[in-house]
Amino acid sequence: MEQGDYLVRYLRGKGVPEQRKSRHEYLSYYGLDQAYVYVLVSGVVKASVTLREGEHFNIFYIQGPSPVSLLRDEVSSRAKSPYSVRVESEEAVYMAVPRIAFWEYVNEDTRLLAYMKDYYRASLDEALYRMRYLTMNGKVRAVGGFLYDMCRRFGEAGRGGTSISLDIANEDIARFCGISSRTSVNRIFRGFRERGIVSTCRGEGRIVVRKPSSLERYVMD
Predict the structure, then answer these.
(1) Which of 56, 73, 151, 178 has the greatest CB tally within 10 Å of its CB?
(2) Which residues of 28-61 are buried (b: 16+ CB within 10 A; e: fewer)?
(3) What is the pLDDT of residues 135-158, one digit of tens each?
């Protein structure tokens, strides 16, 4: 997070303007040419791809400050977007930096260069971490691992448990976990509720994890 703050401050110093989008607006679309590197200043966005059958598969959430696009090479002025990026928080503040200019900034500042190397390493670690619970046997383990990950990244501790600060629909959970329908997710949630592991905030729809340790085993086993 500290390095992400440095990236934002550096780009501000270069005069890169900040822009805003509201919830469910898109920063980029999967497969379309992009001339910019997007840097999220604040807020949360979701990355997803469109499969051949027309279905969407969610990849991960990104919280600012952070780059939100895979940067690929340093010389192309345009590149196809590797995924769609949609705003999931009430608002997202971001910067759009021309691709070549972004790499010129990175290569002229040793701290930025080190940050980008760390960014790629951290992205790989996160991908491997998610693969562990998404490829485990059974839908229950996939959903349990996903909820534990969301609790770890977006959890807010309270008296009744840990509230996940994002509004996550069951359909989105199904798309993150490779489950064909939200009906299966509803059934899994019902089992978690009956065991007192999760509940839902009244009037808000947010998920509350009452027993995070009961979900941890889905990613630790």
Answers:
(1) 151
(2) bebeeebebbbbbbebbbbbbeeeeeeeeebbbb
(3) 666 888 889 889 988 998 899 888
Omega before 98 cis (within 30°)? Answer: no
* The one-letter amino acid at 95: M
Token output for 107:
């290569």
SS3 call for 89: coil
How many alpha carbons lie under 13 Å from residue 10 in its C-beta half-sphere?
Answer: 24
Angle formed at CA 174 by CA 151 and CA 161, multiple of 5 degrees: 25
Q: Which of 200, 199, 139, 197 is nearest to 173 (CA)?
A: 139
Per-residue tokens: 167: 């509004």
Pair of tokens at residue 87: 């705003």
- C-alpha pair distances (Å), 92 with each of 42, 89, 116, 155: 6, 7, 22, 19
Q: pLDDT per residue over 153-188, tens digit each? A: 899 888 778 999 888 988 999 999 888 888 899 999
What are the residue ranges of helices labelled H in the chain? 2-13, 99-108, 110-134, 139-154, 170-177, 182-194, 212-220
Provide, rounded to the nearest whole percent, the portion of the chain with pLDDT above 90: 40
Tell me the pTM.
0.85
Burial grade of 24 (CB within 10 A; 0-12, 13-18, 19 or more): exposed
Distance CA 9, CA 2 (A): 11
Residue appearing with tokens 């390493």: 121
What SS3 state is found at 64? Answer: coil
